[in-house]
Design goal:
By secondary structure, this protein is an alpha+beta fold. It is 28% helix and 35% strand. It has a seven-stranded antiparallel beta sheet.
């Protein structure tokens, strides 16, 4: 099943990276300044996407400290019937921490032409550079 995957190596311990996934305030710094999230399994979240016009909402599916955050992912007001998913994982790497962001489940959103949605997310991943924003924050924090 097609997905959109991006990874980045960050020169920091996984615990230092996890800090930026472990609170609403930290997530707001690199995902969206208006993110509202209850960081527990089943918790709701909502934010304005990086395009500045699409609201995204869903639920926390998994929350594994220093390892994984998985969210259901629904574009509000779109023609999606079912949510896709966003999964962020952190793993130790020779550089420090390998962070991988995966958007998947597009084939199940119930939208005709969902393959075009995958292409839109590919372009968005390259344009919005979310993982690079995370890396910059972690690097600032580690240096400070």
């Amino acid at each position: 099943m097609p997905d959109v995957t991006r990874s980045i190596d960050i020169k920091a311990r996984p615990s230092e990276v996890w800090r930026w996934l472990s609170s609403q305030e930290a997530l707001r710094r690199w995902i969206s300044p208006n993110l509202e999230i209850e960081l527990s399994v089943g918790g709701a979240y909502r934010f304005l996407g990086p395009d500045g016009k699409t609201w995204v909402s869903g639920r926390v599916l998994e929350y594994v400290p220093e390892g994984r955050l998985a969210l259901s992912w629904m574009e509000e007001g779109s023609d999606w019937i079912h949510p896709a998913r966003l999964v962020v994982t952190i793993a130790a790497s020779p550089a420090g921490a390998l962070v991988t962001l995966v958007h998947d489940g597009f084939a199940g959103i119930g939208k005709p032409g969902w393959a075009d949605t995958v292409q839109d997310y590919e372009r968005g991943a390259d344009a919005h550079q979310i993982l690079e924003k995370l890396a910059a924050l972690v690097n600032e924090d580690v240096v400070a």
